[in-house]
Design the sequence.
């Protein structure tokens, strides 16, 4: 199967993040978008004594991604972490997606994540007299993922 080369690439700045259908505002960066499977190594001795190593496809792996956004008065993410820390597994699980958009705002590719929960929330360094934006970075773990 040949890959099509007649389409423009997606711009790296055009994306949106949603959690349980609600778009997260002021997102400046998303890292760790990755889908992978386990690799199983099968080593065997053939009848003629020859040693053979094969690589087999394993199960899909779980994973995580990180979102950085401008700091606002919203406590949604830190409240989500509080639910996780209190051990409310059912209440902590959400679905999330990251959509890559083209120049016209249409979806080129969509990463969908199921059974997500927030693992950490971090505020960037605060410096007196600094001119950069205060940001909130949070890491989301997921059980299943799909790219559409």
Sequence:
């Amino acid at each position: 199967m040949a890959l099509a080369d007649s389409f423009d690439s997606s711009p790296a700045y055009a994306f949106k993040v949603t959690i349980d259908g609600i778009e997260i505002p002021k997102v400046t960066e998303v890292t760790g978008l990755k889908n992978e499977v386990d690799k199983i190594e099968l080593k065997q001795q053939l009848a003629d004594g020859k040693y053979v190593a094969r690589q087999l496809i394993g199960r899909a792996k779980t994973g995580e991604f990180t979102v950085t956004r401008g700091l606002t008065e919203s406590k949604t993410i830190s409240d989500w972490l509080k639910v996780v820390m209190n051990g409310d597994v059912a209440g902590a699980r959400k679905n999330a997606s990251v959509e890559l958009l083209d120049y016209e705002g249409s979806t080129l590719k969509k990463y969908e994540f199921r059974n997500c929960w927030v693992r950490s929330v971090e505020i960037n360094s605060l410096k007196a007299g600094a001119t950069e934006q205060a940001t909130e970075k949070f890491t989301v773990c997921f059980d299943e993922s799909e790219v559409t």
Summary: The chain has a mean pLDDT of 92.
